[in-house]
Specification:
- The complex is a heterotrimer of chains A (240), B (292) and C (275).
- Chain A is of the alpha/beta class.
- Chain A folds into two domains: 2-107 and 194-232, D-Maltodextrin-Binding Protein, domain 2; 109-191, D-Maltodextrin-Binding Protein, domain 2, CATH 3.40.190.
- Chain A is built from nine helices and twelve strands.
- Chain A has a five-stranded mixed sheet with strand order 4-1-5-12-6. In chain A, strands 9-8-10-7-11 form a five-stranded mixed sheet, sandwiched between helices. In chain A, strands 2-3 form a two-stranded antiparallel sheet.
- In chain A, helix 1 packs across helix 8.
- Chain B has one domain: MetI-like (MetI-like fold, Orthogonal Bundle).
- In chain B, 71% of the residues lie in helices and 1% in strands.
- Chain B has a two-stranded antiparallel ribbon with strand order 1-2.
- In chain B, helix 2 packs antiparallel against helix 3 (63-78) and helix 4 (81-104) crosses helix 5 (132-165).
- Chain C has one domain (27-256): MetI-like (MetI-like fold), CATH 1.10.3720.10.
- In chain C, 67% of the residues lie in helices and 3% in strands.
- Chain C has nine helices and three strands, in the order H-H-H-H-E-E-H-H-H-E-H-H.
- Chain C has helices spanning 2-11, 30-67, 71-86, 89-100, 123-148, 152-160, 165-195, 213-224, 227-256; strands spanning 108-110, 113-115, 206-207.
- Classes of the chains: A alpha/beta (240), B mainly alpha (292), C mainly alpha (275).
- Chains in contact: A-B, A-C, B-C.
- The interface between B and C is large, with 44 and 40 residues.
- Strand 9 of chain A pairs antiparallel with strand 3 of chain C, so a sheet runs across the interface.
- Chain B: It is found in: Cell membrane.
- Chain B: Keywords: Membrane, Transmembrane, Transmembrane helix, Transport.
- Chain B: This is Amino acid ABC transporter membrane protein 1 (PAAT family).
Chain lengths: 240, 292, 275
């Protein structure tokens, strides 16, 4: 696809170039408000709105692909799609395998959630979602880690006393905490990553450059901050 | 979409429920039952074909073919199916694209670049310009192949046993009539083996039904995927917020599977009776006695 | 080589919580993958062995109940077998976990003694329970089939010797039924062994990163983003263990058939009978 997307950009190039080939963007669709499946069964959320806007600015034709989190990177490197926008934090582990664009969200805080203030976060039992950066973090602490495949089970574990606290992305947990009358945020927030970026293949420099350009432009004119606020609320972290 | 569903937050009770159960993604959930049935309907014959090939191969007189048949059946059966599904479909996909890249691409460009697997645009499967349904269909196609490889190995075993169970005397009679080995296979062995194969194949069908929840591992949006997605707690960000309802969705799926297996058993009982007619087995004998 | 020995020392029993606390984080070697996945296999063997052991007794009771003429014994057994044979194990795990977490955390008071229930949600107990009930249902169907296919002559011979009730059951009915059921039961054992990979894959949480072979394989695949090393390693382990299981059940088969000259043939893994 790289040849194509590029081609579209390179308007100065040969006149014979046809329509831009489609850029396929993968997302998980299970991590609201970043990405989710709406009531019409379509992917929606912050990343979908942002991705569509970026594609428009970069003059790319984009389609969305739903992919399971576990295989989202293997499928990118085997070229089943061209980009990942799935709340994927930029970190060293991933940078060895794929490339990231500039961050489109500032480093996201991770928070602890528990039933009461006194929960033991240092050496107690902490529930996390498998395969997240938060899970890697808890594995390094003295806490006893309990891993669940999805966020519902994580909260269920806290509610029924299975775990003393849950640890996860602040923005993902916030709506649950606000909706509930028993869960509260406790302890200090932790920053675990270098922000969230779009994952692309390491060989795919052209696409990365185009997306970088669009992200920079959106940061510049404040439209990215506006989009963040519509999806994450007025208090969300934005770019300076 | 029902007419009164424009403002879900104002609804209550049954009206709310009726709207909730008819949202777009619930429709996809109901359709996914169709996906599962479709997949079963396609996989069963394909797996049977693989099985038939495997069974014939392991009876072959050519040592190489025979060993291939034996190794295929015993390897696949020694490994849990879920493990297969975790890497075989990606491997298949890369295999197909590699083959196509030899035809459509410049062969001097390596397909593996570092950890990346890249083929030229013309060799991509499906082409990245293809509409979304082609991608979905291709995903289902890979799932069917993966299932068929695994269940074909089991079917090969059943059929192999059934072929050995056909009474020697029947085959010898055919030979005495001067039929060639090929004719014996086609006219006697294959038609006669089904009654012996049926119990095993019936079981295999049951196992296949019960393996379909693993479809979501293959990236197919099946009933388990939607049950998780819809059942998970929905916050106020959604039009229809609700707490964690996965239990109810999974109970519905449980009922679906129980009905499927129950119905299948009824049908197999009938086929069994039909195939036993006139056979040299205890069941056939019993029918003969009952008739006189 | 020495490095690998060190790895085995550090991670060989990691799945039980012994050795290094932290899993390897980067620069994964083949040795680390083979060792950790092998360590996870301990859990697969644990689940399979105990579920088969307990399930075997339950299955015998269920088979007798299903063969009984008393509807109060027969109906519950039939329903139990239908429920567990008719639905995917995957769904059973999920539902069982959901039910087990409903148990009160403080324990249940039985005649003044508080029975702890919180350990039931741990995989070692909860998943074992599900696997046991599941294999009991499948095996019961196999044993029930065997009971119905007992050769009439042997029962008549037992009657002729004046055996009745328990003696007849213990000396004639049960050994013969086991002999008939054994090949199919071998297949069931293999299937159950393979099913243990689902424990951490669906429902039950992994505690302190102590999981089964698939859990660690998944960990590596997730960290290296390469499914083509870790999963084939699990596959290889399972082929070896399946062969071991077949050999073990073959020994039992030979013992069951020892009085029949020439009948104690090698047991063939034929998954075609009942499951």
């Amino acid at each position: 696809m790289k040849k194509l997307t590029l081609a579209a950009a390179a308007f100065a190039l040969t006149a014979g170039m046809g329509m831009a080939q489609t850029v396929r963007i993968a997302t998980e669709g299970a991590y609201p408000p970043y990405n989710l499946i709406n009531d019409q069964g379509q992917v929606a959320g912050f990343e979908v709105d942002l991705g569509n806007e970026l594609c428009k600015r970069a003059e790319l034709q984009c389609t969305w692909v739903k992919n399971d989190w576990d295989s989202i990177i293997p499928n990118l490197v085997s070229s089943n799609y061209d980009a990942i926008m799935a709340a994927m934090s930029i970190n060293e582990e991933r940078k060895q395998v794929i490339a990231f664009t500039e961050d489109y969200l500032p480093p996201a805080p991770s928070s602890y959630v528990a039933l009461d203030e006194g929960a033991n976060l240092e050496t107690g039992i902490v529930a996390v979602q498998t395969g997240t950066v938060q899970a890697s973090h808890i594995a390094d602490t003295q806490a006893t880690m309990l891993e669940y495949p999805n966020i519902d089970q994580v909260f269920a574990a806290v509610r029924n006393g299975e775990a003393d606290a849950a640890f996860g992305d602040h923005e993902v947990m916030r709506p649950f905490v606000e909706d509930s009358d028993d869960l509260i945020f406790v302890g200090e927030q932790v920053r675990l990553d270098e922000g969230i970026g779009i994952g692309v293949r390491q060989s795919d420099n052209e696409l990365r450059e185009k997306l970088n350009g669009a992200i920079a432009a959106m940061k510049q004119d404040g439209s990215l901050n506006a989009l963040i606020k519509t999806h994450f609320g007025e208090d969300a972290q934005t770019y300076e | 979409m029902l007419s009164h569903c424009t403002d879900p937050s104002a609804l209550q009770g049954l009206a709310w429920l009726s709207c909730y159960l008819t949202t777009g993604n619930h429709m996809l959930f109901y359709a996914s039952f169709g996906t599962v049935l479709l997949l079963l309907a396609i996989t069963a014959p394909v797996a049977l074909l693989f099985g038939f090939g495997g069974a014939m191969a392991s009876r072959s007189r050519i040592a190489g073919v025979r060993w291939f048949g034996r190794i295929y059946t015993s390897m696949v059966r020694g490994v849990p199916d879920i493990i297969f599904f975790l890497f075989v479909p990606i491997a298949l996909d890369q295999g197909f694209e590699w083959l196509r890249s030899r035809v459509y691409c410049d062969p001097s460009v390596p397909v593996r670049q570092g950890n990346e697997f890249i083929v030229c645009a013309a060799a991509k499967l499906p082409l990245s310009t293809s509409p979304e349904w082609v991608h979905q269909a291709y995903g289902i196609f890979l799932a069917v192949i993966a299932f068929a490889v695994v269940f074909g190995a089991f079917a090969a075993n059943v059929l192999h046993g059934a072929m050995n169970a056909v009474p020697r005397a029947q085959l010898e009679t055919a030979e005495a009539y001067g039929m060639t080995p090929r004719q014996v296979n086609r006219r006697i062995l294959v038609p006669q083996m089904w009654t012996y194969a049926l119990p095993g194949l019936a079981n295999l069908w049951m196992i296949l039904i019960k393996a379909t929840p693993l479809l979501f591992v293959l990236g197919v949006e099946d009933i388990v995927y939607w049950a998780r997605e819809l059942g998970g707690a929905k916050t106020r960000a959604y039009a229809y917020p609700h707490p964690d309802w996965r239990l109810y969705y999974f109970l519905a799926i449980l009922v679906f599977y129980l009905l499927m297996t129950w119905g299948s058993e009824r049908i197999f009982d009938r086929i069994r009776a039909r195939l036993s007619r006139g056979q040299a087995t205890a069941a056939g004998e019993a029918m003969r006695k009952a008739a006189t | 080589m020495n490095q690998c020995l060190q790895t085995i020392q550090d991670y060989g029993l990691r799945s039980l919580g012994l050795g290094e606390r932290l899993l390897p984080r980067s620069g994964f070697t083949l040795c680390e993958q083979v060792t950790l996945i092998g360590s996870g296999l301990i859990w697969n063997v644990y689940f399979a062995a105990l579920a088969l052991l307990f399930g075997f007794f339950l299955a015998n009771a269920l088979a007798v109940a299903k063969a009984s003429r008393n509807p109060w014994a027969r109906k519950p057994a039939e329903w139990f077998i239908f429920l567990f044979r008719g639905s995917p194990l995957f769904i059973q795990f999920f539902l069982a976990y959901e039910l087990l977490v409903q148990l009160p955390r403080a324990g249940i008071d039985v005649l003044g003694i508080t029975v702890q229930t919180s350990w039931m949600t741990r995989a070692w107990a909860g998943a074992l329970l599900v696997l046991m009930l599941n294999t009991a249902a499948y095996s019961a169907e196999i044993f029930y089939g065997a009971l119905r296919n007992l050769p009439k002559g042997e029962l008549e011979a037992a009657d002729a010797y004046g055996m009745a009730g328990w003696t007849r059951w213990r000396r004639v009915v049960w050994p013969t039924a086991m002999r008939l059921a054994w090949p199919a039961y071998t297949n069931e054992a293999i299937f159950l062994f393979h099913a243990t990979t689902l424990v951490f894959f669906s429902g039950f949480p992994a505690f302190q990163q102590r999981g089964d072979a698939l859990y660690y394989a998944n960990y590596f695949a997730d960290k290296t983003f390469n499914p083509f090393i870790a999963y084939p390693i699990v596959a290889g382990y399972f082929v070896l263990l399946t062969l071991g299981l077949i050999a073990l059940f073959g020994l039992v088969n030979r013992r069951l058939n020892r009085h029949l000259p020439g009948a104690a043939k090698k047991i063939r893994y034929r998954p075609n009978l009942i499951r």
